[in-house]
Design brief:
six-stranded mixed sheet, 187 residues, 36% strand, 14% helix, two-stranded antiparallel sheet, 2 domains, alpha+beta
Length: 187
């Protein structure tokens, strides 16, 4: 019996609409053995519906994963809320074509363990940091010591690092590129 046998969905035995529930916990992430996420707790609901010779799998994932903060490297809980879907057909051999997964009709089963993991990883934002004030204080003090500072001689002032200065929605822009934003309006 495979370590992911519980994630097998016997498609050829299903009719109508079926809903399967999974608790993806630390043991699941350890079995996946991938570096991006190794701990967490995510409730997964998979709705399977047969539609004109194909199966539509709708995934609803809700929970959190533990990942390192980009700023202080301490673990943080990253909320996961994801809806995704997968279309599956029965065929001669396993393959993925366009946005359809084909599984061998002789088996008639799809294992969704890796698909669940991919949906979780793809829902993690590119930049993940603690809420303001939540970073490891020891690490932020070391970061302050090693940050490059601009001197007053260059016409600027000293740059200070403050944990509250970093807001996820603020993205600095280079003013040299601002004039190019309206280039398509001039044609």
């Amino acid at each position: 019996m495979s370590k992911f046998a519980q994630y097998n969905i016997p498609l050829k035995d299903m009719t109508g609409v079926n809903v399967l529930e999974y608790d993806l916990d630390d043991a699941y992430f350890k079995k996946i053995d991938s570096p991006e996420v190794q701990k967490g707790l995510v409730k997964a609901s998979v709705r399977v519906e047969e539609k004109s010779g194909a199966f539509e799998l709708q995934f609803l994932l809700d929970g959190y994963v533990n990942i390192p903060c980009d700023r202080c490297l301490s673990d943080m809980e990253q909320p996961i809320h994801c809806k995704d879907q997968l279309k599956v057909k029965l065929g001669d051999r396993f393959s993925e074509e366009n946005e359809i997964v084909i599984v061998p009709e002789s088996e008639g089963t799809i294992n969704v363990a890796w698909f669940l993991y991919e949906f979780i990883v793809l829902s993690i934002p590119v930049r993940h940091v603690h809420v303001p004030g939540g970073c490891n204080k020891t690490m932020t003090s070391k970061l302050k010591k090693h940050m490059v500072r601009q001197s007053d001689e260059d016409g600027g002032s000293d740059l200070e690092y403050d944990d509250d200065d970093y807001v996820a929605d603020e993205i600095p822009t280079d003013s040299g590129w601002d004039g190019l934003q309206n280039i398509s309006d001039n044609n």
